[in-house]
Amino acid sequence: MLDIYFKECLYFTANRLGRVITKMAEDAFAASGLSPTAAFLLMAVYEKDGISQKELGGILHLQPSTVTRLIEKLAAKGLLYNRVDGRLSLIYVTDKGKALEDTIHQCWNRLRDRYTAILGAAGEELSLDLYNVSDQLEKNE
């Protein structure tokens, strides 16, 4: 009976999926020397150099304190820097950070290739479905 409860529980199954995909992502991004989340943050800064911390939090769906910690770790590695402009804290990538861009994209592709090899096209559909479900639940919380 408990098995049925767990299978039908979105909380349990989402966390189980989170643990499995986190392991896969950590393996894929190991070559970059960064956690997957730190790499995603850098990808966002590549897209918009001079991005605000608040905007980064919105893109990554992370709390401000988490974004601050990630930025501090990446700044300590010399991969980005923070410039205060009035009340805004703007984030820029350094040359050292730019040098990692190809590696990060290769890691991203390695992760996608790995779960696509297992799930096929259903992996992309599942990702989009989960994103949409997350949006729905966030908006109604």
From TrEMBL:
This protein's UniProt keywords: DNA-binding
Residues of the HTH marR-type domain: 7-139
Record-linked Pfam families: MarR
PROSITE patterns per record: HTH_MARR_2
InterPro entries on file: HTH_MarR-typ, MarR/SlyA-like, WH-like_DNA-bd_sf, WH_DNA-bd_sf
Protein name: MarR family winged helix-turn-helix transcriptional regulator
